[in-house]
Amino acid sequence: MKIKKRYFARKDMINKIQSNLEGISTEFSKLIQRGIEVVETDVGVTLILYAGEPVIFKIEGRFFPTVKGALKINIEHMYVTVDKGAVPYIINGADIMRPGVVDFDKNIRKGDLVVINEENYRKPLAIGKSLWDAEEFSLKDKGKCVENLHYIGDSIWNLEL
Description:
This protein has helices spanning 11-21, 67-72, 87-90, 134-139, and strands spanning 3-8, 37-41, 46-50, 53-59, 62-65, 79-82, 96-97, 101-104, 113-118, 124-130, 144-151. By secondary structure, it is an alpha+beta fold. A six-stranded mixed sheet has the order 7-11-10-9-6-8. A five-stranded antiparallel sheet has the order 1-2-3-4-5. The N and C termini lie close together (11 Å).
């Protein structure tokens, strides 16, 4: 991943980021401080940097915390928690399968971006896109339920600026 552009975020972008993050955590302001930078990459990913770390990214037109960003705040909504057996697969980029899910936000809708946590310490492992509504999580016991979009160890995680 190479950087195409790098600049400081304008007030209108900061307002849009804030409105996108309000539904995830009341602590979103920890990620949005004065002097946040915007990095546009050659692979179409836009990253928001705070203190040189990618803490937010723009995906499918929405701003959402990266795994590093999710580690800095308490995720209150938009999460899926997986058992410890799923962890090695998820951090290698695998999608999330229903048998590994032990908890989830009851307000998830199909297409929502979610933080994927591990069950012991509730630490974020990945960011994904829900393929099911919360009702389907409750009714189904097998199948792919979340597409893994960004995870610990991928190119966003390892980006050095």
